[in-house]
Amino acid sequence: METSDIQTLATAARMAHYSGLSSSPAREGTIVELSTIFPAQRVQQALAFIDLAREEFAKNPAAYNEFFHALELYEENQLDLKDTIIRLMLLCSGSPTLLRALNAFLPTGWGLNVHIDDVAVELITPEGRAVHPLPRAVPQFY
C-alpha cells in the first residue's frame, strides 16, 4: 500500500460526508473528480469503505461525525498518520468488520489485528507493535 491510500480515503471521506453521495450522479462525479488525483479503483474502494462506515455508525451519529473529523484533520496535516489510525481504531472499536476493512488503506508496514473476542486491537507500525484495549463506549475527541 502507498501512504497516499489513506489520503485517498481521507479525501473521499470528506467529499462523501460534506457533499453527500446518496445519488448516483453525485457519486459518479466524485469518482471522476478524485480519479484525476488517485487511481480510480482506490477511489471506489474508499467510497465502499465510507458506505460501510455509514452503515456501521447509523445508530451513533456522534461517532460517524468524529470518524470524518479525524480524516479531515489528517487531510489538513493536523494529525499525523499514527494518531489518525489510533483515533479511527478507537472510533471503529464497536465494529471489527470496519477495523479489518481499514487495513486496506494503511501504508506498507502498518496494520491492525483484531484480537479474539474483539477486546483489543494490535497496531502494527514500522516502529513496532502495540496492543490497545478497545473502549466499551466511543471516545470523544473534541
Automatic annotation (TrEMBL):
User: Taxonomic lineage per UniProt?
Assistant: Eukaryota, Fungi, Dikarya, Basidiomycota, Agaricomycotina
The principal location of this protein is nucleus
Source organism per entry reads Polyporus arcularius HHB13444
The superkingdom of the source organism is Eukaryota
- UniProt subcellular location: Nucleus
Q: What is this protein called?
A: Uncharacterized protein
Extract the InterPro entries matched here: PAH, PAH_sf
GO CC aspect terms: nucleus
Provide this UniProt record's keywords sorted from A to Z.
Nucleus
Q: For this chain's UniProt record, which GO biological process terms are given?
A: regulation of DNA-templated transcription
